[in-house]
Amino acid sequence: MAADSLPSPSSNTGPVLGYGTARRRRRWRIVALFALIALVPPAFWWSRSMLQQWSEDRARRAEIRYRVTTNLAVASAEIAEGQWANAQVAIDRARLASQADPLLFSDRESRELGQKIDATDIKLRDAQEQAWRSRDPVIERRIEEAFVRQRTEEVFVRTNVIADLNRTADQLLTQGRYSEALQTLREVLILDPNNAHAQARFPDALLERSLSMDPSGNE
């Protein structure tokens, strides 16, 4: 019986050692799997956030291009009808739209938008000049009166738009919404680079915004 209980010299102890090695391998595989699970979500959400931002920027660029193109088309139609004041308003709207979020566009894209707007503006000036030069002596006075009336209306509309923007900027500053006030003042200076009110308020708005920012750069 004692002899039967002793292990045979030919018995294989390999499976016991192999079993222990397999357990260690499985343990490390489980550890590696949990480590992978812990690392994947941040990378996934980071990629998703970047993709969402890219999609939003793309949609915003398309919206701005649409607004510019639509207003320039309206301006061209008004020029053809001789409605120069309306054409100027549409051109101003296109210019404001192109500057709504300039960081979304490359320098080349910004230049292209600006060139389209400038070309329509030149088209308006040429149409006005041509109408002035091609006057018929019989209706000369009537054309001259219409020209002066439309130029006066154009100036009146632009002046009102600028005044409204300046009032809006002042209200935003009073409410502590300095970034929005700066954007509104920029719109005024696009329409009228020499506007005294906007020039005076712009440095104040910059200073107030910088003083209101926390260390992280947020207002």
What can you tell me about this protein's structure?
This protein is an all-alpha fold and 219 residues long. The protein has helices at residues 2-5, 14-80, 84-98, 107-133, 140-174, 178-191, 196-212. Helix 2 (14-80) packs antiparallel against helix 3 and helix 3 (84-98) runs antiparallel to helix 4 (107-133). The longest helix has 67 residues, at 14-80.
What sequence of helices (H) and strands (E) makes up the elements? Answer: HHHHHHH
Radius of gyration: 35 Å
Number of strands: 0
Portion in helices: over 70%
Low-confidence stretches: 1-17
Distance between the termini: 90 Å
Range of strand content: under 5%
* Alpha-beta classification: mainly alpha
**Average pLDDT:** 77
Note the main sheet.
Answer: none
Overall 3D shape: elongated
Count up the helices.
7
Features:
mainly alpha; 82% helix; disordered N terminus
Can you describe this structure in just a few lines?
This protein is 82% helix and 0% strand.
Topology:
Blueprint: H1 2-5, H2 14-80, H3 84-98, H4 107-133, H5 140-174, H6 178-191, H7 196-212
Helix pairs in contact: 2-3, 2-4, 3-4, 3-5, 5-6, 6-7
